[in-house]
Amino acid sequence: DCEVREITDQEGYVLHTTRGDMGCDIVVNATGLYADEVAKLAGIQKYTIYPWRGDYFKIKLPYKVDQLVYPVRKPQASGLGIHLTMNMQGDTFLGPDSEPASSKEDFHAKSEKKLKFFEATERYLSGISPEMLTYETCGIRPKLRSFSDKEEKDFVISEDLPSFFNLIGIESPGITASLAIAQFVKNKM
To answer: Of the candidates 84, 82, 66, which has an alpha carbon nearest to the alpha carbon of residue 74?
Structure first.
C-alpha cells in the first residue's frame, strides 16, 4: 500500500507518500474511492465520493448458464438490479445489489441478505432455492451522487489544475471504457 499524504506544487508536483516523496510533471488522479481526497490534497475541493456497496452471493444452479441474465430494470432503481453473472472459472454469482456503504472500508460480510437475493432472482431463474446461495463478497463503487439524489451523475475526467488530471466517480461503464479513457487523458497531456 502507498498513501498520498500531501501534494505540493514546486516546479511540477511532489507527492508526499507513505513510501517517500515522488516528483512529477503530470498527475493522473485515478484513485477510485479516494479520488476526492487526493484532489483535496491538491486544493481541489469540488468533489465528493459517495461509497455505494454491492454484495454478491455464489449460487449453485442445477443447470448450466453461459450468459449474463439481467432482470428488467425498475424505474428509479438505484442500480441494474440483482443479476446473474459468472467468473472466468464458470462459477455463477448473483449481484450486485446497491445500497449506501457506511464507509469506504465497509467490506464486512452481509450474509443476512440471502433471502433478499433469492426473492429478487426467483422470478427470472427457475428451480432455485435459498440453500443454493452462499455469501461471496462485496464491492464498493465510487459514486458522485448520494443515495438520496434522484439524478444520476456521470463520472469526471477533468484537468482541474495545469497537468493535474482527475478521474473521479468512475465505476462500471468507466471500467469498460478504461482503455479509451486512458487514451483520452494521454491526448490531453
So the answer is: 82
Q: From its phi and psi, is residue 76 left (phi > 0), alpha (psi between -120 and 50) or beta?
A: left
Q: What pairs with residue 38 in β-bridges?
A: none
Determine contact, residues 169/153, Cβ cutoff 8 Å.
Answer: yes
What's the topology of domain 4-49+150-188? FAD/NAD(P)-binding domain (3.50.50)
CB count within 10 Å of CB 1 equals 5
Residue 78's pLDDT band, with cuts at 50, 70 and 90, is low
Residue 74, C-alpha cell as written in the block = 425498475
The dotted CATH code for 50-143 is 3.30.9.10
The Cα 181–Cα 166 span in angstroms is 12
135-174, pLDDT tens digit by residue?
999 999 999 988 888 787 889 999 999 999 999 999 878 8
Contact present, 81 and 104 (Cβ < 8 Å): no
Q: Where are the domains of the chain?
A: 4-49+150-188, 50-143
The pTM is what?
0.86
Gyration radius from the chain CA atoms:
20
Q: Give the span between the Cα atoms of 160 and 50, in whole angstroms.
A: 20
